[in-house]
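Protein entry
_____________
===
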Amino acid sequence: MSDDTRPTGGGERGSGPARSVRIAFFDVDETLIDSKSMFSFLEFHLADPDQYRAAAGKLTRAARAGVPREETNRAYYRNYAGMEQAAVAESGRRWFARERQRDGFLHQEVVRELRRLQAEGCQVALVSGSFRACLDPIAEHLGADHMLCGEPEVVAGRYTGEVRTAMIGEAKATAARALMDRSGARPEECVAYGDHASDLPLLTCVGGAGVVGDDPVLAEHADRFGWIRLPGTAGSAAVAQGTAAADPAAHPSASSSQTSETPPAPFTSSTEELTHATR
């Protein structure tokens, strides 16, 4: 389900009867991490530059044709049709282990903000159009309490290629409201952080917000409402993702990168389009 609240490794905090529940909602890609997890992970998992380039190219063409981002998000998950959920999850753990070795993968200023809120007793919810295979290791590392994300359909232990809810735009706010309602949290006491205009519904459904980077739509709202401003990620939308699509002959293959600690080279070919299409 898209608003899954199973523990992700951090456990539940603030459970005392006299303590009100506060939740801090964090977008993930280019907010907590410096890359687009869906594509960085897809390239890593496929371990085939040509196959990745074909998949990325198909999504890029759809974005250029004006296909709604909810549909391109769904199209992304068709790349996993027939794959074993457990195998993809294990690949996600290997992907995270590699990415953690790369300087800048975790956006330290935003992570410090998350730690500050945890120390104040806030529960943390990660909110992303990505999915658990690559998000669970991040959530466990950060001690997040809830995960609101895309949930690909699984039948008999294998992905079908379909996804129940595209966790994009207004869907993020809907899932956040549902979690606050279930948890007894007052929206005006909760906060949210994001980097892209598509995060605006999430940021405006709570009492406080933080803007990461310089998205003009979010910057305007931050100035108007006095939201927190945090710097953008160092490589925002151009780090550790899509290297095979950029120039597979110029970089090590994804299969070799699974066993190497050398981070992939930046990719700028169509990453911004892919980001816009699927987040």
Q: What stands out?
A: The chain has twelve helices and eight strands.
